[in-house]
Amino acid sequence: MSGHSYQGKKNIPKITSDRLLVKGGRIVNDDQSFYADIYMEDGVIKQIGDNLIVPGGIKTVEANGKMVIPGGIDIHTHFQMPYRGTTTVDDFSQGSKAALAGGTTMIVDHVIPEPGNSLIEAFDQWRSWADEKTCCDYSLHVDITHWNDSVKQEVDTLLKEKGVNSFQVYMAYKDFYQMSNSELYEIFTFLGEMGGIVQVHAENGEIIAEEQARILEMGITGPEGHVLSRPEELEAEAVFRAITIASQTNCPLYVTRVMSKSAADIISQARKKGNVVFGEPITASLGTDGTHYWSKNWAKAASFVTSPPLSPDPTTPDYLNTLLASGDLNVTGSAHCTFSVAQKAIGKDDFTQIPEGVNGVEERMSLIWDKAVTTGKMDENMFVAVTSTNAAKILNLYPRKGRVAVGSDADLVIWDSDAVRTITAKTHNSAAEFNVFEGMELRGAPSVVICQGKLVLEDGNLHAISGVGRFIPCTPFPDFAYKRIKARKQLAVLRAVPRGMYDGPVSDFSPMSRGGTPSASARTSPTKQPVRNLHHSAFSLAGPPTTEDLPIRPAGRRIVIPPGGRSNITSLS
Amino acid sequence: MPLMCFYSSQIKFRLFSQSDRLLIKCGKIVNDDQSFFADIYIEDGVIKQIGENLIVPGGVKIIDAHGRMVMPGGIDVHTRFQMPDRGMVSADDFYQGTRAALAGGTTMIVDHVVPEPGVSLVAAFNQWREWADSKSCCDYSLHVDITNWHKGMQEEMESLVKDHGVNSFLVYLAYKDVFQLSDSQMYEVFNVIRNLGAIAQVHAENGDIIAEEQRKILELGITGPEGHVLSRPEEVEAEAVNRSVTVANQTNCPLYITKVMSKSAADVIALARKKGAVVYGEPISASLGTDGTHYWSKNWAKAAAFVTSPPLSPDPTTPDYLNSLLSCGDLQVTGSAHCTFHTSQRAVGKDNFTLIPEGTNGTEERLSLIWDKCVVTGKMDENQFVAVTSTNAAKIFNLYPRKGRIAVGSDADLVLWDPDVSKIISAKSHNLAVEYNIFEGTEVRGAPLVVVSQGKIVLEEGNLHTTEGCGRYVSRKPFPDHVYRRIKARSRLTELSGVPRGLYDGPVCENVTPKVMTPVTSVKTSPAKLQQQQQQQAPQPVRNLHQSGFSLSGAQVDDNIPRRNTQRIAAPPGGRSNITSLG
Q1: Which of B179, B228, B569 should we substitute to test contact with A (largest number of A Cβ atoms within 10 Å)?
Q2: Could you report the per-residue pLDDT of B222-242, keeping only the tens digit for each?
Q3: Contact B280, B484 (CB under 8 A)
């Protein structure tokens, strides 16, 4: 086991120039923009203001009135992800370099334990990989790929001791990662109580399995089969179901990879109904579409394979950018998970075998700036919110991350809103041969990136150092999600109606359930039939309830007139 | 033809003849498309003539409608008479139930066959036929419920469709571990149903969540009927409706949602229809006429009488909302889901709400309720009333125009409707065997004055003259036009084709472990799943390397545009040359 290696993190030599002054910048937070200088020391912002008194001889960066924004937080990456004996081509070093080059100063990677294996062991494994190689700060989500009591115990430990507050469950990948509705219910209930965030990969895996079989039978084996077997309705359906369960269990929900209009619509509808749900479109869904699956170049088509797939509807990116701007979708990730063409070619004869994932960690900030800010959909403050602040709030890292303020980490980006560059695999910092945004001309790019108080990007040169990235523990009960959840919990107390015991005649019936087959035993299992203590009446000691005592329903239910309030109905008739 | 002697239609006297001939004079005939004044002459249970100054044989019985409305008799598309439940049988059998139906102006019912899981569908169907043939007082037909699923049942379904006149099958998304089907099973059943030309009906509630909620609520010590509705919130209904719409769209199968009980479920249906899905929604008498506040009644027996699934919504604005959607066409058909139990039967669940037998009354009240809530309030006109109580049901289930219309050649199932009479619904006066009526005390305006079933007068001057066992089984053909015209057009569009590409001949990553790597199944559960997994691994198709991906017809510019009706594609992928070109 390599579980120990991360603990003995190697000493990083103290560089004397840990002091840095950014002069003449316009600080952009999610709430306001203002001109001020920023002085940082030991990786933390120490002073903000005009005419700061700072020690002599420190390095000064002239912002020349450009925007200084909190470094981006890429809330969804899969660096160095093991996949069927191979590993994604961008490891933590390569991946976080690409992130920094694009103005992202923190990434949150997904730990994917093999089903049946220990979550904590997998977590330790990921920590050791990341500690060794990452060039920027990072956190980890843990994916729950199977569920039982010992997993529950591990989740508890991860939440309380290991600094993980978000867990992803899969509604797709039948017979592999996929959770049943009952398991989802249990997981949501548990995480709702423990203060975690539930993330879902939302697609109906059962129907996908059927569709895959059907499409392979038709002889369609290329990447277009991937999107044909995963129509966007199946994504929307799973989102709808996840929201229903989250609402029942009063648990905050986070939908990873919002790829289609219909899924986004379900999320915005749910938010309008009051559900605590966050949607994460990714770079790919905001920047390109699924028409490329029909490319005659197999390798190119395969490079777009990800799940849920990119929508073949070319108006999707614009629509998702609009919802991101309006606040219906909240955070952006990249779901960066790149494979080489040779790896993708594992599925050359069967699209279901193509390893899934697209690039996007480097392009995310520029892409959103180009699609949403230059088009006037959102302003610079909203840009900061969706690329950084909201993610920090959900992860409970705010205001340490996601804000330019005294005491916050010195992760900053000087943003050049006029820079124009063309995305191409020839120049990108990823190791993959294809870039799904190939040829796209994007306006807006980082001109300087400061990570942990150090200059890592300046004059187009990247000075990233592998292994300096720290693990940032996330604590449970983030206010951003849980203030509302807690308030609802207090409302959701259910009460029985105090009635006398029914003492009329009772029919004979066979104790078997409907249908009378052996399957019935499940329905009438001992847990479901609490043995009633006949000495207890249904009346509570507190005496007959007043009107306010009458049943209060969970927050998700719309009830205009409380049943207790209508005396003609509840009186004995 | 026995028309020997002809009398003019001026004859006013009434003759009580045993003959099957009947003349309804001066009625305003109301169909779903128009209303007009005409006389109707009926012989041998069939409408023979419609018009003025009809020439009819002498001695026929004459009913003078005095300008009142004459409508097609109601069709109650959802009843559960004489339904077995754990050794008990629902209180209203086919005799009592159809009597009540006729008393309310309904002249045909469609009952649900509920086979015990594992029992042959055909055997169950025959059992129901036997019960109904011996007792039913009006024409009837049968839906068959699919209570479990394996491939072999396909043949039974085929036999039911081809030999027994069944064209609708109900699947349950609720009742976990009893009737509930998984999503994959639903997908398979829908495929079979579409191929047979039948209608997929769905009891839409998420059974998995309900099972969890039931346990939670019982643990809280809530054992009364309020637990029933607390454990089955309307979101869970809406979720299942949404899921079944998704699966129906994928399989291009027409969908029919039984028992639409809540606003959110109705909204999902309305939205799906706007997106083009072929889906029908059936609110029932209970959801149109009352609400779920009664579950909190302090009278246990009363509260228990309202227990049905999906439950009545505790939101008291629900009935009005559903009536509005019924009026505007977003919901199309109405049933009663009539399934009644005596209080002593309900009391089986006196200490545990999950054991209370489920079902409410409504077959007798359905027409009057809808008239009162929709027509009197001006939501719909009399024609739409006929559509939602009779015609649409006949169209969906392929009974039209034999049923659901007043036309020459149609069955003589008619109702002479009095829009002005008002009555108060009460268990004291209803035609049911049960002690409670969930509409107790509701005053409704509009009631049948005369009911004609199979050409015979069965309700007149408040007296029911029903004959036990005279009801005929009406068989229904598959592929109803009303439903399948669109489905057929779509299946022609949904053919998919691959992209013709040369074979990929670049490097391929080696040392790949099989996709399913760990023996997860042991952790993840049952042997059933393990089998599925093995099956899944097996059919990784062996590619014939001598075949290229090119079709013989050569690559056309647009022959590879895969388009399915459910996907919105503004610019066809094939049409953008900069994207599909190599490189």
Answers
A1: B569
A2: 999 999 999 999 999 999 999
A3: no
- The DSSP letter of residue A178 is B
Residue of B nearest to A523 (CA): B177
> Could you give the CA distance from residue B220 to residue A495 in angstroms, rounded to a whole number?
8
Q: Going by DSSP bridges, is the β-strand pair B46-51/B56-57 parallel, antiparallel, or unpaired?
A: unpaired
Give me the amino acid identity at A365: M
Separation of alpha carbons A301 and A297, rounded Å = 6
Residues 134-193 of A with CB under 8 A from B: 146, 148, 174-176, 180-182, 185-186, 189
CA–CA dist B374, B387 (Å, integer): 13
Question: Could you give the C-alpha distances from B467 to B111, B402, B431, B472, in angstroms and in order?
Answer: 19, 22, 15, 12
d(CA A268, CA A252): 15
Residues in chain A: 573
* Cα B49–chain centre separation: 32
Nearest to A111 by CA among A92, A94, A85: A92
Structure confidence at residue A220 (pLDDT): 94
Q: What is the ipTM for the molecules in this complex?
A: 0.76
CA distance A565 to A545: 12
Rg of chain A, C-alpha, whole Å = 26
Nearest to A532 among B147, B351, B507 (CB): B351
Q: For residue A342, which residues of chain B lie inside 8 Å, CB to CB?
A: 506-509
Q: For residue B497, how far is the Cα from the chain centroid?
A: 36
CB within 8 Å of B416: residues ≥ 6 apart: B24, B27, B63, B65, B68, B69, B70, B448, B449, B450, B451, B452
Asked if A494's CB is within 8 angstroms of B224's CB, the reply is: no
Q: How confident is the model at residue A533 (pLDDT cuts 50, 70, 90)?
A: very low
Q: Tokens 């227990």 map to which residue?
A: B307
CB A292 within 8 A of CB A300: yes
A42 by Cβ neighbours in 10 Å (0-12 / 13-18 / 19+) ranks as exposed
Under a CB-based contact definition with an 8 Å cutoff, are residues A363 and A102 in contact?
yes
- Which amino acid makes up residue B345? Q
CB contact under 8 A, B504 and A560: no
Distance CA A247, CA A253 (A): 9
d(CA B281, CA B550): 45
Q: Out of A175, A530, A553, whose CB is closest to B218?
A: A530
Contacts of B226 in chain A (CB under 8 A): 496-497, 551
Prediction pTM value: 0.81
Chain B residue with minimum CA distance to A351? B540
User: Tokens 């089986």 identify what position?
Assistant: B348
Asked whether the beta carbons of residue A515 and residue B569 sit closer than 8 angstroms, the reply is: no
| Cα separations in angstroms, B334 against B287, B341, B411 | 10, 21, 20
Taking the Cβ of residue A443 and every Cβ of chain B, the question of whether any pair is shorter than 8 Å is answered with no
| Amino acid type, A145 | T
State the Cα–Cα distance between residues A175 and B530, nearest whole angstrom: 8
Helix (H) or strand (E) holding B285: helix B285-289
What are the tokens at B492? 């022609």
Closest CA to A140 of A96, A104, A110, A170: A110
Q: Which of A195, A251, A178, A197 is nearest to A75 (CA)?
A: A197
Q: Chunk chain B into consecutive blocks of 10 residues (it has 583) and report each block's average pLDDT, rounded to whole numbers.
A: 40 46 94 95 95 89 94 97 93 96 97 93 96 96 95 93 96 94 95 96 96 94 95 96 96 96 96 94 97 94 96 96 95 96 94 95 96 95 96 96 96 96 94 94 96 95 93 96 92 79 83 54 36 42 46 45 44 43 38
Tell me which residue in B177, B220, B236 faces A494 most closely, judged by beta carbons: B220
